[in-house]
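Cross-posted from the bioinformatics board.
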Amino acid sequence: MYDWAKLQQFCEQVFARAGVPRANAAIVAESLVQADLRGVESHGVVRTDIYMKRVEAGRMNPHAEPAVVSERDMVTLLDGSNNFGAVVGTRALDIAMARAKANGASIVGVRGSNHFGTGAYYALKAIEQDLILLVMSNASQTMPPTGGVRPFLGTNPLCVGVPAGQEQPFLLDMATSVVARGKIIVAAQKGEPIPSGWAIDKDGNPTNDAQAALNGSVLPLGGPKGYAISMFIDILSGVLTGAGYGKYVNNMYENWEEPQQVGHFFIAVDVSRFMPVEQFKRRMDDYIRLIKAEPKAQGVEEILIPGELEHRQTLLRKRQGIRLPLKVAMELDAIGQKYGLDVSAAAFGEGSIMGGSIA
Amino acid sequence: MYDWAKLQQFCEQVFARAGVPRANAAIVAESLVQADLRGVESHGVVRTDIYMKRVEAGRMNPHAEPAVVSERDMVTLLDGSNNFGAVVGTRALDIAMARAKANGASIVGVRGSNHFGTGAYYALKAIEQDLILLVMSNASQTMPPTGGVRPFLGTNPLCVGVPAGQEQPFLLDMATSVVARGKIIVAAQKGEPIPSGWAIDKDGNPTNDAQAALNGSVLPLGGPKGYAISMFIDILSGVLTGAGYGKYVNNMYENWEEPQQVGHFFIAVDVSRFMPVEQFKRRMDDYIRLIKAEPKAQGVEEILIPGELEHRQTLLRKRQGIRLPLKVAMELDAIGQKYGLDVSAAAFGEGSIMGGSIA
């Protein structure tokens, strides 16, 4: 097991020693460990290794700050200058939140970015400010269009965060594929098979082999509807912002010649423009309680609100620690050694790499 | 077969004779017939009968104009005053388009509305103005939350329209259910069964009986993801605007005591704030052509862009006419007789109600 705070400190120090300005190193580390805390392993410290490799290869530039291309009224276009996606996304969020407070709502289009972690990382910060946030991003090609056989669209994520009162906030953070490709990456790392219907292999055949799926295509959520949702996210994040789209969004694991050219799209809405915040929160609480009070299907213990499970995981993992797959623990150990840091200082009890047993 | 222009004129005259101001009668008629032209029968003139019944019962008020509740910067809150949804939606769209041109983008939240037809009706008008439009609406309860057994959420539609250059515009207009409930209504009217996986009956059991499905629940698109998407649409359209949400959105076929209390949410974006419109359209054309040029799966003749099929249907049906199910043709005939109008004047050749054969 790993202590979340020490693990976050380890990642922050690694990024800092690799030349990332301290404040930005802290952002990236926080975004990764928050994902592990929420149970979204696919976007957690498992990404540290690839992020470091892209910095070391000069494919990400941690020294160039994101720059505003144009900004008027409530619309801003931001160029990420190929910095870490989490750094670029945080800058875009800060602009979106400030503009929404000033104008009632705001839109920030982003180009020149990289994989920005989870949308939830940004939505949770907006929720703290009583803002509703819609955030989306395109990604490198992993899904075929409906009727196609090879990857064209990314699993372009859609995230929506809404503040509530006494209830947990509404927090949808989904890939537009049947499942997040990261889940398949994790399965491949664990050497586990994947359920049918998740993906097709490179020849377009259904597969339960995680590695074959990674070499093939993840399938869109709900067929043509998921295809269309993924497309409009690519259009807003990429075609409209001047970022890459389709094949022009580069795969961070495979393309070592070019930057990723990822684009994002943020929409922030100030609740108070529609009704007093407290009234809105009471309505959200009522809405959430009505859903949770619905009669349950056989075998269902509880009807959950999007984000509720991840919130509970966070509380649990902050207490009990974060368990990492052996492969990830060993990657972090190697990175630590390279930068004169010891990840085992963040580990405790059995299940840590020091304890040997990881499972 | 029915001539689309004459059918639209018939509907417009019916609404006008029922006391709807001429300009508004024209809007509602155009919205219905456009849906039939696009092949979205579920939102076509099949709705004339229920719209008329609600006006006659005093559950819709065609005489009260929508009123702006608050308007500042780029955020507007509109009260539909319980007018026709298409009238309210058109007013909201006009505000959204004007504000987007002035501010780069705009948001219009709407309460006090009714069933507003297809989102495509609004998106196509925005596309003509080189605007990107996201429009959503909540609806009366037809889908269970994930883990539930009875309807709580509507099949809350999401529509996104994006202009292109020489290619057809991107136009996604989807229900957040596996299929639009209207398709099940049409199946029930035709006395046809529905595919497995579309719906559950009132006891939560899978069913292929269209009527049993209408008495039960339509299932959300892709399970928990569709549940969450439908929820955020309900939150933005209903909880945030002051409209109904969940059980507070009334079923237009079943509740004759109260107005529907439907809410909508419009987001308009001016493409020119991000790059010159012509450059954007070239990028859209490139994007669309890249997708359509993808290798096709076995048996697939063509990879389609969202909205492409409906555009072709429109061209075809404007030439060949609109075929109506006997039940709908007879409803329109009865409505015509009631208001001293003859729908058969819009019919031609076999397949019309005069010709007898409808199939």
